[in-house]
Write a structure and sequence with these properties.
Blueprint: H1 8-24, H2 30-49, E1 73-75, E2 78-80, H3 85-88
Antiparallel strand pairs: 1-2
Length: about 120
Amino acid sequence: MRFENLTPDRVKTRHMLVARHLAWHAPISRRRFLGAGVGASIIGGALGAGLLRPVSASAADGIGNVLPIPTTIEVFGEAIHLQAPPFTGPNTDPSTVWNFHGASGIAFMDTSVTRTNRKTGE
């Protein structure tokens, strides 16, 4: 390292980077490591025993029941509720919900790959 190229702002930046690195990779004591493990075990045991239960999220008022689209496509002998515009007609909707109010989209991509070894360039 050439010290004549170090300006005061570069020295300050280097010290900040070293401090940030040491903060993220600080050594951890055995006591702190075991304490974290015991805490995680207690929470896991409480979840497993059913003492802590997740709270269900409240959804906003909607339009009611979600209905699947009435049209189906046969795939491997199984009827599925799906519309794919190129295959089922140009004016079909790609949504799978009949009473869906919003926007939906679909993409069919046809791509090719060229493999190049970065070291040899081949």
